[in-house]
Amino acid sequence: MSDSMRVGVVGAGTMGAGIALVALQAGLPVVLCDVQEGVLQRAKQEMERRLARRVEKGELTADVVTAMLGNLRLSTEMAALADAAVVIEAVPERMSLKQSIFAQLDEVCQDTAILATNTSSLSITEIAAQTQHPHRVVGMHFFNPAPVMKLVEVVVGEETSAQTVEAVVNLAEQFGKTPAVCKDTPGFIVNRVARNFYGEALRVVGDGTASTEVVDRLMHGNARFPLGPFSLMDMIGIDVNFDVTTSVYEAFYGEPRYRPHPIQARKVAVGQLGRKSGRGFYRYDDEAGGPPRDRQAFYSSEEQQTERRSALSAERVYVVGDTPLAASLRAWVASVVGTEASDCGLVYEGPVFEWDSAAIAARCTELTRCIHAAQPKVVIAAFAGEPAYHRQALQAVEQGLTEDALLLTSLAGPSATEQASWLARPARVRGFATVLPLPEPGRGKTIAWTRPLQADAADALDDRTVGLLQLLGWTPLQVRDGAGGVVMRILAMVLNEAAEALREGVAKASDMDAAMKLGTRYPLGPVQWMKELGIASVWQTVNALWRELGDDRYRPSPLLRQWWYARKIDVEEGPNHA
Ligand code: NAD
To answer: What sequence ranges are listed for the domain 3-hydroxyacyl-CoA dehydrogenase NAD binding (predicted)?
Structure first.
């Protein structure tokens, strides 16, 4: 697109005004249309205010701002868009309204003009169907606030031409944005892959596994999401989030992975909509309001570090497993204790298949022998793979243990109760769940732990578990036992959805990673995250959830299953827009 091409924007509300400003700041002439003159004037004032702030900050000169504002034309008539090379529509989210606007644009604009819609949930193909030239209709999904958020989802309708896609990808880049190209499927990338961040969190609370506060403390303090799912729903508006969920669910004709939750409906019914109504999952109407914050610091002083080192050495912590988590935990323990990783455990590179009985037997013999030699008081186990292999590995670990040793096992897979059932002394087991990368030690880093049903409540091992996790630098939070231990349960469901969207060809891996990091500020893109955790852990967690919870929404994506058997996350790398 040329430097002087005119950009038309239809609708001067929250998004339209923001998009117009983005185009002006890219140095392009803009025509902004709305049916209400007052809205146009307010939009202009808002742009002036934002630009003035940039002048104050020294980012722009007054002359440049004057030139930008001189490039802006306001109009209540669609005819003003006649000379626009591209028009971006941002009117309210109603199919009939969008279709009528596109039919008018088709009449008014040049035959070569690109017609883009900022819809967040409607089908581009259906909008384009009302035009004579559906090949030049495309989605350009900006995020709120448009001048700040870096992502633009470029949504390709059934009939959108390759030239149109290329032109809007270039335009998005000219705007200083990162385009992520995706197919015209419900929710596009972000609103689809993010669904289970909310949906699974609601189920965790709904089935009594953990409270909203604990879920938020884990997803923020352990998994490093900028906000926990409940704090985020309060910010977005519980009603808005519920509407998006319902629309994606209906657009997929009742696919259970997107099923809304009754908690959402109840909150909307009583008007507890989040921050905007003073109350949602949290209260915002008094000073103590808002979501919880973890501030407790552990072992920050030199003295405390020494105390920690000697306490951990005395526990003789030994890490075993076959996952990247096991490798990270072993390195972690070694760095705290101040010794070599090889002294702190035995970690294999990946599980073996359950039919490879010779390899399993060899591993089991070595595991028992090494644990017997190390005489640990605590073993941290993080195995993945099929249940038969996992069971034998854990049994081999137990055979090397002394009577009173504690066995902490990863919940990136079956519940602690299920894993404990494989052992002679099930009451010695506790479950823990954390994601990778491990959080740096320090303030408020949380971790989930569980007690299996075979152990008595308030058993002394509970205190040992809490003490040990604190020694490792975490704030331990107890949740009810279950596959995935909350934090891996929610994350694995997000990753399962990402795998399914990749399988359906919704977007390339690089575009999906860019979209989730820039559109929702995830700490890692889903594909990057699967690689970090290892396919075995992700696959095993989803599979364990499916076996434990039974609902079809947990069925693993066939792609996860195939990657597990192929031992690699095999994604087609596209042009990297990130
Ligand atoms: P908004 O209500 O703030 O603004 C819509 C504007 O469109 C209003 O100013 C209205 O006067 C104008 N309008 C209505 N009918 C018109 C017509 N026939 N011709 C010209 N103007 C007309 O809405 P919004 O939040 O800016 O959302 C606009 C679109 O952007 C929707 O499709 C929405 O789904 C999408 N979107 C919104 C967000 C968000 O967070 N608000 C984020 C991404 C995408």
So the answer is: 7-185
pLDDT in tens, 520-561: 999 999 999 999 999 999 999 999 999 999 999 999 999 999
Q: What pLDDT is recorded for position 295?
A: 60
48 and 135 both lie in a single domain: yes
Assign residue 369 the CATH number of its domain: 3.40.50.720
Residues 362, 408 within the same domain? yes
Task: Give the largest Cα separation in the chain, rounded.
Answer: 84
> Choosing from 118, 123, 141, 410, which is the catalytic residue?
141
Domain co-membership, 413 together with 561: yes
Residue that finishes a domain, picked among 243, 277, 311: 277
Report the CATH number that the domain containing residue 258 is assigned in CATH: 1.10.1040.50
Task: Please tell me the distance from the alpha carbon of residue 331 to that of residue 576, in angstroms, as a whole number.
Answer: 32
Tokens of 300: 């920050």
- Band of the pLDDT at 296, cuts 50, 70, 90? low
**319 and 226 together in one domain:** no
Check residues 291 and 475 and name the one with the higher pLDDT: 475
Choose the residue to mutate in 10, 31, 33, 34 for probing ligand 1, maximizing ligand atoms within 8 Å of C-beta.
Answer: 34
- The answer, yes or no, to whether residue 292 has pLDDT greater than 80, is no
**pLDDT tens digits, 71-99:** 999 999 999 999 999 999 999 999 999 99
Catalytic residue list contains 141: yes
Q: Is residue 285 included in any domain, yes or no?
A: no
Mean predicted lDDT score pLDDT of the chain: 94
- Catalytic residue, from 89, 118, 123, 191: name it: 191
State pLDDT tens for residues 385-437: 999 999 999 999 999 999 999 999 999 999 999 999 999 999 999 999 999 99
Number of domain units in the chain: 3
Q: Give the confidence band of 337 by pLDDT, cuts at 50, 70, 90.
A: confident
Same domain, 122 and 242: no
State the residue range of the domain holding 80.
7-184
**Residue 321 and residue 463 in one domain:** yes
Mutate to test the pocket of ligand 1, among 31, 91, 152 (most ligand atoms within 8 A of CB): 91
* In a domain? residue 255: yes
92 CA from centroid of ligand 1 (Å): 4
Helix axes 37-56, 62-70, angle to 10 degrees: 160
**Alpha carbon distances (Å) from 549 to 169, 419, 435, 460, 541:** 42, 16, 21, 30, 12
Report the C-alpha gap between 388 and 106 in whole angstroms.
62
176 shares its domain with 245: no
> Tokens in use for 190?
């972000």
